[in-house]
Amino acid sequence: MEEGQLVRKTLKGIKQRLNDDGTITVQQEAGAIFKLHCSFQEPATKEQIKNFQLVYDCILPQDYQNFLLENNGARIFEDLDLYSLEELITFKDINLPEGCFCIASFLDTRIVIDTRLYKKGISDYLFCLDSTESFKDGTNLNTNFELWLDRLIIAQGAKYWEWSNSDSFYYRWSL
Questions:
Q1: Tens of pLDDT, residues 115-138
Q2: Cα separation of 150 and 61, whole Å?
Q3: What does R_g of the chain's alpha carbons equal in angstroms?
Q4: Which residues pair with 155 in a beta bridge?
C-alpha cells in the first residue's frame, strides 16, 4: 500500500460508522460504553500545504499531508483534536525544536511530528508528550501518522500506546 493510503481508508471507515447525529458508540476499557461526537473539517489544498512547508522550511510527512487533503483538521471521540494547518501555526509551541509540530491534542497529551526525522527517511517520526513535558522527555511512539491514527481508531479512542501487558492488577481493582 502506498504511503498515505491508510489514512483515507481509516477516515472512510470511521465516517461510515457515524450515526446521523455525528456520534459513534464505542466500548472502552472495563466495558464502558460511550456515545461520542466526531467532526471533520473541509480539506486543505495542495497550495496551502506547499505554502506551510515553504514558510516553515519543512516537509510534512506524506501520510499527514494526505490527512490534511482529506480533512484539514478533525475532532474524533470528543477528546482528540487533530489540528488544521492554521491550528499548527496557532498552537506552535516555541519550546519544540525547529521542524517539530504539535499536530494533535488528546486530553493531557500532545502528539508531535518531527519533520527532521521524516526528511532523513525515518518513518517513526511521531512523539507523545504530556502537557508539561519537554520534547527531549517525550516518548517516541515508533510509528508514523497513518498507523497511529488507524490503531487509535481501532482502539476506539483509547491511548493504546500506554497499554501494558501486565495490567491485570488495574482491571481486577477497577471493576
A1: 999 999 999 999 999 877 888 888
A2: 16
A3: 16
A4: none
